[in-house]
């Protein structure tokens, strides 16, 4: 199936092609369809129908996204930032985070420690080394208290 905009490929078929590979947020699908030269007035109704039929769900996308990011060793701040960039509402973000934390028993402090341990052997002997480890965890989206915990328990 071709994903370029031609006479045979409907917006629904294109969207279904994207969704066949992975979950997408509504905003991501809007953007992708617009890049394929789908008329803006066609995109909204198409995505509304997909959502009504349960084929596209921001909640399902967010939950899947959070789960994969936790497995990669990322913290709440980074996960929320990336979900925001993908057009997911804050209420959906919070619900997805709560679901994954409950289902997977996520302890953000231990996740920060495990993430640090995968990259570094020690908390750092010099202030410069310690600062490097702090920046690493901060860039992964961990909060200050989680970073302190990770450094003290490495």
TrEMBL record:
Spell out the subcellular localization from the entry: Cytoplasm
Keyword annotations of the record: Cytoplasm
GO BP field? regulation of DNA repair
Q: Where is the RecX first three-helical domain?
A: 12-50
- Signal sequence interval, chain numbering: none
Report the domain of life of the source organism.
Bacteria
Q: What InterPro entries does the record tag this protein with?
A: RecX_HTH_1st (IPR053926), RecX_HTH_2nd (IPR053924), RecX_HTH_3rd (IPR053925), Regulatory_RecX (IPR003783), WH-like_DNA-bd_sf (IPR036388)
Q: What is its main location?
A: cytoplasm
**One GO location term (cellular component):** cytoplasm
Similarity section: Belongs to the RecX family.
Q: What does this protein do?
A: Modulates RecA activity.
Q: Output this protein's name.
A: Regulatory protein RecX
The scientific name of the source species is Vreelandella subglaciescola
